[in-house]
Amino acid sequence: MAMVTKRRIIVERTAILAITVLFLLPVCWLISTAYKPSNQIFSVPPRLFFEPTLDQFRKAFAAFDVVSLVRSSLIISIGTTVLSLLLGVPAGYALARAKSRYAAGFAYFFLAIRMIPAIAALIPFYLLMRDIGLLGSWWAVIVFNTMLNCAFVTWMMFSYFKSLPPDMEEAALTDGCTQMGAFLKVAVPATRSGMIACALFCMMFSWNDFLHPMFLTTLDSKPISVALLTAYGTKDITWGTLGALAHFSTIPIVLMALFMNRYFVQGATNGVQ
To answer: Where are the beta strands (DSSP E) in the chain?
Structure first.
């Protein structure tokens, strides 16, 4: 029995290692490409050992305004996250404390909004932003992403508030606290981990978004996710330069995921009920 268990553990760990290597190979290729000399990127056979160089990063900074691209990504991501939380958290609380038997159905209706194919709403939204003069600005992408992410936050926070016993809020009301005070001073602090998880998901969705800013921004307001594609073919750059530019698109969101991974896990479990 012990031998069977040991073999099963070996097989499981070997399978996990193989899958991990399979998923990490593109990342390793991306990293190595950015530090290889141009004439060694597609060498056959591939060179695992080479003398690292920063020439690709110097070319990336010479060809692109990297600071402006990262700034656009940050403004769009942070703006979307803040607006989504400001609208989605109170909406989730209201649904969780509603006496209606249809409240749960409304919560899943918000989730269905997030499932709408982006391209289905993009053209009408494009025309709307053009008519009100926001097309080409960061606000066009922030408003569109907020529409989608706010629905996701509402559904997530509905589950968090629903799992929170209302006894503490009722005690606060008994002590003279208003309904708004009970929400801000009792319910919101008690679901802080859920709001952090929602913020991380909104940040990740917005940072990695490509389709919406591709159509709604201009050269001055586009984020780095769009620059990665539009750069290839419009400027005389190499794969190494593209790999170096991809560093600035990948590292911030990966670091955030690594430092906040426990909130991602909570968001994927507590929020789905």
So the answer is: none
Query: So what's the pLDDT on residue 232?
Result: 66
Q: Which of 271, 255, 144 is CA-nearest to residue 204?
A: 255
Placement of tokens 């981990």 in the chain: 193
Q: How far apart are the C-alpha atoms of 138 and 216, rounded to whole Å?
A: 8
Please give the Cα distance from 87 to 201 (Å, whole number). 15
Residue 241 has pLDDT above 90, yes or no: no
Q: Which tokens in the block code for residue 164?
A: 């929170």
The C-alpha atoms of residue 3 and residue 268 are separated, in whole angstroms, by 36
**% of the chain beyond a pLDDT of 90:** 18
Output phi, psi for 163, to 5 deg. Answer: -80, -5
How far CA 222 is from CA of 35, 75, 126, 127, 236, in Å, comes to 26, 11, 15, 18, 19
Strands (E), 53-185: none
b/e per residue, 234-249, with b = 16+ CB within 10 A?
A: eeebbbbbbbbbbbbb
pTM of the model: 0.82
Indicate the range of 3-12, 119-128, 149-158 predicted with least confidence.
3-12
Query: Is 90 exceeded by the pLDDT of residue 28?
Result: no
Count Cα neighbours of 103 within 13 Å in the Cβ-side half-sphere: 17
Q: Judge residue 90's burial from the number of C-beta atoms within 10 Å of its C-beta, 0-12 exposed, 13-18 middle, 19 or more buried.
A: middle
